[in-house]
Request: fold
Amino acid sequence: MRKRLHFSLTTEIILCFVLLTSLIIGLVIVGNNVFLNRYYIQQKQDALEGAYASIDEAAGSNSITSRDFNAELIRISSRDNLGVIVMNEESQAVKYYASDAETMIRRMWDNLLETTDDLPENFDPEGEDSWVNEKGQDEDYFTVKKFTETDSLHVQIVLDKKTNTQYLERWGILSDGSYYLLRTGLDSIRNNSMIANRFFAYLAVFALLVGCVMSIVLGRQIARPIREITGISQRMRGLDFSAKYQGNARADEINELGSNINELSTALEKTISELKTANNQLKEDLEQRDRNEAMQREFISNVTHELKTPIALIQGYAEGLQDGITDDQESRDYYTGVIVDEAGKMNRMVQKLLSLMHLEFGQVEVTMERFDVVEEITNYLSSANLLADRKDVRVSISEIDRDGRTLGSKERANLKPIYVWSNAFLTEEVFQNYFTNALNHVEPAGSDSADKVVDIRFEQKENCCRISVFNTGKPIPDESLDRIWDKFYKVDKARTREYGGSGVGLSIVRAVMERLHQPYGVLNYDNGVKFWFELDTNAQASGGADGSGD
Reply:
C-alpha cells in the first residue's frame, strides 16, 4: 500500500490558496488571449452601430449639417476613435470627421466599386509579391473578415498594407439615400491585451506573495485551536482528562467542537471513575465472600488474646485499690494511672480493630477518584509535624521523576503535583500508619550520627507512583518480614508495649491495599527500614494486591 503524503493544515491552506489563485490567473490570461479580442471587436461594432444610429437620425431629420449635430459627431468620434464620412447621391461629401479625409473618401469608393480583394492565403507582410492581385494591380487594402454583407449594410475588417494596420469598417446607405462609412482602428487591442497580461502577471505574483503570507497567518490561526483539540484528544486516548480546551469568545464551529470535547472529557472521566469503583467493588465482593467466615473466627480469637493482658491489669489494680492494698496517695495515683493507661490502650486497640474489621468485612465503601497524592500527604504532614518535633526527628520529603531526577527535597513548595486514581481517605490511612510506625521505631543512623531521620519519597514510574517512608534505625529481622502484616504480630513486644502499639497498624495497611488492589511492601537497609506502597497514575493501569515488590 502506498504511503500517503502528510501535510499540516497550514500547508494545505497555503497549497489550496496557491492552486486556486494560479487557476484564476491562468483562466484570466487564457480569457484575455482567446476572448478579449472578440469582446473588443463586438464593443467596436456596438460603437459603430451607435454612431450609425445618430447619423441616420440626423440624415432623416435634415439636421446632419447643423452645428448641434457637428458637436455630437465630434463627441462620438473622439470617444470611440472613429472616422466618419457621409456622401450624397452626387458623390459629394456631406459630412466627415477624420484625420485623413482623403483616405476615407478613397475607402468609400473602394467599397462602392468593390475593388478590395480578400486577404490571400500566402500573404506575407515582409514580401512584395503578396501585395499584387491576380490582375497585377497593386493593392492598398485587403479584406480580412466580413461580418455582415447586405445591399444596405456591410461590416468588415480590412488590412492596410502600408501600415500593416487592421480597421473595422461599417458602410452602406442611410435612410435618406446617402452613403456613409464608419471606420476605427483595431491594432491597439492587441497591444493593450499584451500590456494588460503583463501587468496582470506582475500583479498576480504580488498577490501570490501577499496571499501566501496571509495564508500562513490564517492557517496558523485556524490550526492552533485544532492542534489544541488534537492534543487534548490524544491525552484523552491515554485516559488523561486533566487538559481542557480554553478557546476564545468567538462562537464558531471550532469552539463548539472544543466545548463538546470538554464535556466528553468530563463525562468519560466520571464514567471511568464509576467503572473503576464498580470493578473494584466487584473484586472485593468475590474475594470477601470466601474470607468472611475465616476472618470472623480469627478476629474473635485474636481480640480475646490481645484483651486478656490489659483486662487482667485493670482488674488486678482495681481490686488492689478496692482491698486497700496501699494507703499513700502516690501509690493510689500509680494504680489509677495504670488503669487509665491500660483503658486508653484498650480503647485505641478497639478503634483500630473496628477499622480493620470494617475493611476486612468489606463494610467500607471504596470510591475511586483522581487526586493529587503529593498535596494529600503534605497536608497530613503539616498537622503531624508536632509528633516528629517531640521526638527530635528530622522529616525530609523528595520527589523522583521518571528520569531519576530528584525534585523538592526539604522544600515542599518545589514538589510537583502527582495525580493518582485511588481513594484519598484510605491512602491517608495507609500513609498515617507507615508514618507513625516510622516515628515509633526511628533511631540514630549509627554511632557516628545522632540524627534520627524519616525520609518520605514520591517516585514516579510507568503508570504508577510509589510512596515510601524510610526511618533510620535497626532493620527488621528476616524471619519477621513476612509476618509483620499479620494482626497483633509484634517484632519487639517490649518496645511495642512501651509506646502502646497494638500490632494492628500494618494489618490495616494490608487490608487497605488489598481493597485497592495495589502492591505494597517493606525493604531492609543497613541503616534502617523502608515501607512503600504504589497507586495508579493511569486510569487503565491495574496493580497487584499480593504485596510483592522490589
